Amino acid sequence: MKYQEYVIYPKAEELTALTEALSALGLDELIIEDPRDADLFTGDPDSYLWSYVEQSLLDAVREHPSVTFYLGEDEALPKEAEELIRRFDHRRSVVDDGDWLHKWEEYYVPIRLSGHVVAKPVWREYEPEEGDIVIEIDPGLAFGTGTSPTTYLAVRLMEKYLRPGDEVLDVGCGTGILSCAAVKLGASRVTAVDLDPEAVLSTGVNVKLNGCEDRVSVYRSDLVRDTDAKADALIANLTGPLVLKLCPDAAPHCKGRGLFISSGIIDDMEEPCVKAIEGAGFKVIDILRDQGWSAVAAVLKD
Q1: Are residues 270 and 183 in the same domain?
Q2: Strands of the sheet with 133-137, listed across from one edge
Q3: At what angle do helices 240-250 and 270-279 cross, to 10 degrees?
Q4: Same domain, 23 and 161
Q5: Checking DSSP bridges between strand 216-220 and strand 189-194, what pairing results, if any?
Q6: Residue 216 is part of which domain span?
Q7: Is 117 exposed, middle or buried (0-12, 13-18, 19+ CB in 10 A)?
């Protein structure tokens, strides 16, 4: 099968705003090469598995940042996205799916998401350290093995605030990393939802890879509109605008202390998202930040 490959080359200071704008236009399955990521892998060996990073990846991201996404061979690019992309150097080409999936297999490596949670691409070897919780990930067409700050910030809040036995609602499950992490952190039950059918399929695959199928149910849903699940913890790795859209429906899907972890919030969206979270009946208890992204943990107000 053939796909259209779009590669955009923003300046480093434009990268975060570009990814947020593309996500707001519905192009949220992005492959991001950020020169600053090299420092993540090499600068803090206590937090990242820097010894597992391919030198070719480090060389590539140090050249220039880029954002890549794919459309079907005959799929039309939204007009707003076309106008946005024209502002940057970019290229479009037609590729076979086997070519680009194999290309990115070369770059995906094990990465430590938090103190104990490690995401490992299924085709890579990794020798766990004592106390490691290893999540096997096959990104498939949904992409993502956890290297995005939005993912590891969410996992760090989950490791900090999830309680054994919690029921979890994972909104925007993507490849299922957070669903699998929730189970391995002690969740008794996870309901995973995503609007993208490829994400639903990918989460199903990764749930089975990690032996979590008895505790994870996966459904297609527009945020929480198509599920009546209620959970002790609602986890949402989305975007700032989608967090705002989710907030009015968050509390009705929470029970108990009502932990609400939201990630994928660009820095200039943090304040409005925090206000929306508080306005929806929650009290913010923690905010983690990295590389212009924020993740917020909150609980239902008494």
Answers
A1: yes
A2: 111-112, 117-121, 133-137
A3: 10
A4: no
A5: parallel
A6: 141-300
A7: buried
Q: Is 48 helix (H, G, I), strand (E, B) or coil?
A: coil
165 and 72 together in one domain: no
- What pTM did the predictor assign? 0.71
In angstroms, the Cα distances linking 104 to 83, 139, 153 are 27, 10, 23
Calpha distance 259→54 (Å, rounded): 37
Distances (CA, A) of 112 to 48, 50, 116, 151, 252: 5, 9, 7, 11, 33
| 290 part of a folded domain | yes
User: What are the Cα distances from residue 79, in Å, to 5, 85, 90?
Assistant: 17, 10, 16
- Dump pLDDT digits (tens) for 14-60: 988 998 899 888 887 788 877 655 444 444 444 443 333 444 554 54
Residue 125 placed within a domain = no
pLDDT single digits (tens) 273-301: 999 999 999 999 999 999 889 999 999 99
**3-state secondary structure (DSSP) of residue 78:** coil
The CATH code of the domain that includes 184 is: 3.40.50.150
290 and 212 both lie in a single domain: yes
